[in-house]
Amino acid sequence: MRLLVTGRDGQVATSLLEAGQARADAQIVPVGRPQIDLARPDTIIDVIAAASPDIVVSAAAYTAVDQAEDEPDLAFAVNATGAGKVAEAAARLGVPVIHLSTDYVFDGTKADAYVETDPTAPLGVYGASKLAGEQAVAAANPRHLILRTAWVYSPFGKNFVKTMLRLAADRNEISVVSDQWGNPTSALDIADAILHAAAMLHRNKDFAAFGTYHLAGTGDTNWSGFARHILDTSLKFGGSWARVRDIETMDYPTKARRPANSQLSSAKFADVFAWNAPDWRESAQAVVRRLVIGETQQARTA
């Protein structure tokens, strides 16, 4: 099973590459800039065709949520037009596309977890561009899995877990928003789920349950609760620690509005693919442990 993944250096792409190296049944082919640039649609079709994949994983995206407010054209070029071209390239080859989307397609006003059929209402440019990308992908390739996820972190790239560990090394107290709720989701788990789903698509050429799914960590928390778990785990493994002070969204103004509720129900994905994410605390502990122990080992050898 040969998977082409767009976004070579992203959290999910890097996690997929790592996971693929441990499996005999999957070959991961990451492609990114300058080889392929979603902001330049003319670079997409030929590169994907040349790789001859069995499945295309569309993971590349414009993810600078606040910056998108100042760069709407670029955000839509990458997240909508570019994503649609990736799906079109897969369709031309007659293969499925697995496209990653976001909780930001919702406005966060629902009281409980969002399901796939809930109305979308993005609050900002980033969410609107990702929603447009979902629509472009679905229009370009009927054999699509659109996977909405949320609060993604990993040992790779920039993310909330790494930010908390970095800040705790320099200060005694960190102020973190406590009135936004969601499902912390490890990119390592996302990679495992994608490989699980891809294997099913590869085995079953008559697979008929294409469409939109939610894929997030099991269990929910707020950002400050997530931060406390990260830092308590770090302390457990000999890493940095700081107190977490709860603040409200209004105390930490950002250019783009965030959904107050980003909880996603992954029941549909679990039902169709028989895969459930671990409890978010378990997955977060594994990533924090890896980061803290890795830093300790580097310090010892420096």
What would you say about this model in short?
The protein has helices at residues 11-21, 44-51, 72-93, 125-140, 160-168, 187-203, 223-236, 267-273, 280-301; strands spanning 2-6, 27-31, 55-58, 97-102, 144-149, 152-153, 173-177, 181-182, 185-186, 211-214, 221-222, 243-247.
Explain the overall architecture.
The chain is of the alpha/beta class and 302 residues long. It has a domain at 2-158 and 184-220 and 263-278: 3-Layer(aba) Sandwich (Rossmann fold). 42% of the residues lie in helices and 16% in strands. It has helices spanning 11-21, 44-51, 72-93, 125-140, 160-168, 187-203, 223-236, 267-273, 280-301, and strands at residues 2-6, 27-31, 55-58, 97-102, 144-149, 152-153, 173-177, 181-182, 185-186, 211-214, 221-222, 243-247. A 6-stranded parallel beta sheet has the order 2-1-3-4-5-10, sandwiched between helices. Strands 6-9 form a two-stranded parallel ribbon. Helix 1 links the parallel strand 1 and strand 2 (27-31). Helix 1 (11-21) packs across helix 6, helix 3 (72-93) packs parallel to helix 4 (125-140) and helix 7 crosses helix 9. The termini are far apart. The mean pLDDT is 95.
